[in-house]
Design a protein that fits this description.
The structure holds 3 protein chains of 3 kinds.
Chain A lengths: L5 E3 L2 E3 L3 E3 L8 H10 L3 E7 L10 E6 L2 E8 L8 H14 L4 E6 L5 H13 L4 E5 L13 H4 L2 H14 L4 E4 L7 H10 L4 E4 L3 E3 L2 E2 L6 E2 L9 E4 L4 H12 L8 E4 L5 H9 L2 E6 L1 H6 L3 H16 L26 E6 L9 H9 L4 E5 L5 E5 L9 H5 L6 E6 L7 H10 L3
Parallel strand pairs in A: 3-4, 3-16, 4-7, 7-8, 8-9, 9-10, 10-15, 15-16
Antiparallel strand pairs in A: 1-2, 5-6, 6-14, 11-14, 12-13, 17-20, 18-19
Helix pairs in contact in A: 1-2, 3-5, 5-6, 8-10
Chain B lengths: L2 H17 L2 E9 L2 E8 L8 E6 L2 H12 L9
Antiparallel strand pairs in B: 1-2, 2-3
Helix pairs in contact in B: 1-2
Chain C lengths: L2 H8 L10 H10 L7 H5 L6 H9 L3 H11 L3 H7 L6 H4 L2 H4 L5 H15 L13 E5 L3 H13 L2 E5 L8 H4 L8 H12 L4 E3 L10 H7 L2 E4 L19 E3 H9 L11 E5 L3 H12 L4 E5 L11 H9 L3 E3 L2 E8 L5 E14 L5 E5 L5 E4 L2 E4 L7 H6 L4 E2 L2 E2 L13 E3 L14 H20 L3
Parallel strand pairs in C: 1-2, 1-4, 2-3, 4-16, 5-13, 6-7, 6-13, 7-8
Antiparallel strand pairs in C: 9-10, 10-11, 10-12, 14-15
Helix pairs in contact in C: 2-4, 4-5, 4-9, 5-9, 6-9, 10-12, 10-18, 14-15
The chains are: A alpha/beta, B alpha+beta, C alpha/beta.
Chain lengths: 420, 77, 447
């Protein structure tokens, strides 16, 4: 049976599944329940000067009858005194020595503030530190969270201050509310970070009530922007992990966060360069028990693939992630409709007709029934028809590999010789 | 719209020129598409010129694939 | 196989099609993944239903199969024969909000995957040196054998039939439960090192004393026997069948044209009666009538079975008591003479007592009569073991499943008594599991 142990920047954990800093890691009671359920580690809800929260705090995006496709929160960091959290961290670490506990930290961008909190949390035996440069709401208005995480200089400086005092590995958690995440990732590395984690939540407003015209969520009729998370953000998080993993200058381990809710999501992040993953929204939706299938499913997957260790997955897909200009223009794929599986909803036809290249047309079978076929010579292989097709197997995308590859970059070099 | 037909038409023009000892001598791509200048370089000493205005992406790709495959003389004259 | 025989087998294909892949994903994703879920509590074997469905959604089919079979060693059978609307699906919280999750069909999907891919889900425990004999390879016996093997016991199962599986192999019509499903479950248990000795009847091929002396514990899981006599004249006529034997023969591949075009009367209105009736219909019977002395309300067949019978064109004659079977000069059945019945006060079983209306007999024309009025008990074997019993229902401690002989345990239909629980495959499986646990606890001190 495959080994799920990971070594993340020197932090050992019996599996790659950590709870991300957030409401599920608010107390020792919760973290201990999580460890009992099987989580390999937990990043404690961000420590700092205790806040006062508002009610309500969360809202969910339902899509097509499914709840929590996306999730939005305006809850701040811990609202409990540091001593209380430290006491519970110490107790939890003592009771669960084989589980990783990471302290998430957020203080004002001042050297002495970082020095003080680092010393105090390391005294109770945490395995590592995670610097919260990410929360987009509330704390940012106090120059913390994403407000400092959006400025590469501040990221570098605060990481450096932390490293001055820290004895355990320092993970810098990055905000996605920035044009190029590699800029802040690089700043973290320059500041001496041992690892980076991403993404924190994304700026969002969940919705507006059509009857009352209040925002979701609202507090006495007023709302504010919150942090977006859940399955909907996964592709954004995955691309940011990939961007960092493909940067030669960024050689530190990456902890993948954002919309992960099962072992399949975790595998994707690991293939794209994450050495472990963190989960929050899925645990809020279903409880800590979801980790059972994450562990079981990952184990079965690794066994099926003939891999001995979860670490063998890390980064396997990174070399496949390229710039657009390095993609082969000559590669062709075309859609083909399998009449045995087609249920005749005609959705492929109308999406191709109205939104693609008008190459799926009706014809009449010998028995008089109407069916659809692809005019393959005009098909650009865009995938739209197979994306909208509701019947498994009805549309197959057929690969037509070319003998010679020609990328955009190669093409432009060729043309430049001719003055083009 | 049957874009493939337009591609075949444009491709045929290119192939006809190339089949008559024309060579690509200049390429210019701009907002209007691709302009490919041909010059006849036969043994008989003909020096006819021709310019094709290519609109279809597949044809514009075809031209560069010809260059890539060195089916035409790559050195401009 | 000639074309007629091929056709005959086709009519015994499973009535209910497998779920389609898209249907599976839609349905599995509809499951709410409840915590402390009522479906799990409603299942006699307590399968973690939300978890096995969650695993379908994540493509972890091996994990899904393990969760199901951990709780229920005969889960492929149960996915097909359980009265789910009375158990898991009946308890689904979505019953009130929308439609219940099709748990049985999803379980069947996972078990189909397991039957196709044969993953190794369990391993035998480290041998602890203790030996247990299981008498009867039906669901209760198999379930106890599987659990004991996992605890590390050396288990020998004695089965008098040619193949293991008991009722699942022989007693449930193939269009509801194909034989290969039950036999696959048997294989999974054999893989754990359990020795299953078929064609071996305890008390005949192996002596009772040898079983009692040769093992550290014995589990009696012999189920029930054949249909008792009706006790009316004409029972010996040619054309009178026992429902259990009829289904057994069909399941063993004996498809005859004996019933083609015939008029059949099935006596009784339990699940076996419906199985026999629908079986006859598929075998070509022109008309099949179920005759029952009480009313629709008192019948013991599950509602879904009753619905299925009506769909298949089975006719029901309520409040009708067969008095005698009449035959022609060659000894062939010609009719069943019946008396109408009215229903009186409730009896001990809570059902209204049937009272015969005198002097109003009428005849139902019939070529075939099938008896399906319950099953007999193997009292001689029970008494040969010297076990306390009530009319063949072996008395057990409800917690430990121990009989009056502390070394002998009993599970399954052999302990199923009037009005206590239901004689379901899934209940037998759970009793087998619990018996194994009880034996393990008893013998643990000696290991």
């Amino acid at each position: 049976m495959a080994d799920l142990h990971i070594d993340f920047a020197g932090i050992k954990s019996k599996n790659p599944f950590w709870l991300a800093s957030g409401p599920p890691t608010n107390t020792g009671y919760q973290v201990q329940r999580a460890f009992d359920a099987g989580w390999g580690g937990a990043v404690w809800k961000t420590l700092g000067d205790p806040v006062i929260n508002v009610t309500s705090r969360f809202s969910g995006l339902n899509y097509g009858g499914q709840r929590v496709a996306g999730f939005n929160n305006i809850e701040l960091i811990t609202d409990r005194p540091l001593e209380v959290n430290l006491r519970e961290i110490r107790e939890t670490k003592r009771a669960y020595p084989d589980h990783a506990i990471i302290a998430s930290l957020m203080v004002e961008p001042k050297q002495e503030k970082w020095h003080e909190i680092v010393k105090r949390v390391e005294d109770v035996g945490v395995d590592g530190l995670e610097l919260n440069f990410g929360c987009p709401h509330g704390m940012a208005e106090r120059r913390m969270g994403s407000a400092s995480g959006q400025v590469p200089d501040l990221v570098e400086k605060q990481t450096y201050w932390t490293k001055e005092a820290a004895e355990t590995p320092v993970i810098v958690k990055l905000t996605p509310n920035i044009t190029d995440i590699t800029a802040t990732a690089d700043a973290a590395v320059q500041g001496g970070a041992d690892a980076i984690s991403m993404i924190n939540t994304i700026n969002s407003l969940m919705g507006v009530d059509l009857d009352t015209w209040n925002t979701f969520p609202n507090i006495a009729g007023k709302g504010t922007h919150g942090g977006y998370s859940g399955p909907a953000v996964k592709p954004i998080a995955l691309s940011m992990v990939a961007e960092c993993a493909t940067q030669p200058d960024i050689q530190v381990p990456i902890s993948g966060i954002g919309g992960i809710e099962n072992w399949q999501d975790a595998v994707e992040f690991m293939l794209m360069g994450a050495s472990n993953v963190q989960v929050c929204t899925a645990a809020m939706h279903h409880g800590f028990r979801i980790v059972e299938d994450m562990i079981d499913g990952l184990t079965n997957y690794l066994d099926e693939k003939g891999l001995n260790s979860a670490m063998d997955l890390v980064g396997q897909s990174v070399s496949k992630y390229k710039k657009w200009g390095d993609l082969d223009l000559n590669h062709k794929r075309v859609a083909r409709i399998n009449q045995d599986y087609c249920i005749h909803c005609n959705k492929c036809h109308i999406s191709c007709e109205d939104a693609a290249h008008q190459c799926i047309e009706f014809y009449t079978e010998s028995d008089g029934t109407r069916a659809l076929k692809v005019r393959e010579e005009d098909c650009v292989g865009c995938n739209l028809c197979s994306i909208v097709c509701p019947a498994d197997g009805a549309i197959e995308m057929i690969e037509q590999p070319s003998d010679v590859s020609m990328t955009w970059n190669e093409r432009q070099r060729l043309i430049s010789v001719f003055g083009g | 719209m049957h874009e493939h037909q337009f591609y075949l038409e444009e491709k045929q023009k290119i192939d006809t020129l190339l089949g008559n000892e024309f060579r690509i001598v200049a390429i210019n791509e701009n907002l209007s598409g691709m302009f490919v200048a041909f010059k006849q370089m036969g043994d008989q000493g003909n020096t006819a010129h021709a310019t094709l205005h290519l609109l279809i992406p597949e044809t514009r790709k075809y031209v560069t694939n010809l260059l890539l495959a060195e089916k035409v003389d790559q050195s401009p004259t | 196989m000639d074309s007629a025989a091929t056709h005959a087998w086709k009519i015994f294909d499973e009535v209910k099609p497998d779920m389609k892949p898209k249907e599976v994903m839609e349905e599995a994703n509809r499951c709410l993944f409840c915590y402390d879920a009522p479906c799990m509590k409603a299942c006699p074997t307590h399968i973690d239903v939300p978890l096995f469905i969650k695993k379908i959604t994540t493509g972890n089919m091996k994990g899904s199969a393990r969760i199901i079979m951990e709780a229920n060693p005969v889960a492929a059978t149960c996915a097909r024969v359980c009265p789910t609307e009375e158990l898991c699906e009946g308890a689904c919280v979505l019953n009130d909000a929308s439609l219940p999750i099709m748990i049985g069909d999803l379980q069947r999907h996972t078990m189909n995957w397991a039957m196709k891919n044969n993953p190794q889900l369990f391993e035998a425990g480290e041998q602890n040196g203790k030996r247990v004999a299981v008498i009867g390879a039906g669901p209760a016996g198999l379930s106890s054998a599987r659990e004991l093997a996992r605890y590390g016991y050396q288990v020998t199962v004695f089965e008098k039939q040619a193949e293991a599986g008991g009722l699942d192999t022989y007693g449930i019509v193939p269009f509801r439960l194909p034989k290969h499903v039950a036999l696959w479950e048997v294989e999974q248990i054999k893989k754990l090192g359990v020795s299953i000795q078929t064609n071996t009847e305890v008390g005949k091929d192996v002596s009772i004393q040898a079983v009692l002396d040769g093992f550290d514990a014995v589990i009696l899981a012999i189920g029930m026997a054949h249909v008792p006599p009706l006790g009316i004249p004409g029972e010996e006529l040619d054309g009178v069948f026992d429902a259990i034997q009829l289904i057994e023969r069909v399941k063993s591949g004996h498809v005859t044209d004996r019933f083609s075009g015939k008029k059949a009367v099935v006596i009784g209105a339990g699940n076996t009666a419906i199985d026999a009736a629908t079986c006859l219909k598929r075998l070509g019977a022109a008309r099949v009538q179920i005759v029952y002395r009480r009313s629709e309300k008192e019948m013991t067949a599950y509602p879904f079975e009753y619905r299925f019978a009506k769909e298949e064109g089975i006719e029901f004659r309520w409040q009708t008591q067969p008095k005698r079977i009449e035959g022609d000069e060659n000894g062939n059945v010609t009719s069943v003479v019946c008396a109408p019945i009215m229903l009186g006060e409730k009896d001990a079983s809570g059902r209204r007592r049937p009272i015969e209306i005198d002097n109003a007999p009428f005849a139902i024309n019939a070529d075939i009569v099938v008896k399906a009025i319950g099953q007999m008990r193997d009292i001689p074997l029970i008494e040969a073991f010297d076990l306390a019993h009530d009319h063949g229902v072996v008395a057990v401690d409800p917690l430990t499943y121990q009989t009056s002989n502390p070394k002998v345990y009993a599970a399954g239909d052999v302990i199923f008594g009037n009005g206590k629980g239901e004689a379901m495959v899934v209940a037998a499986a759970e009793q087998g599991k619990k018996t194994a646990q009880a034996i393990h606890e008893q013998l643990l001190s000696k290991i």
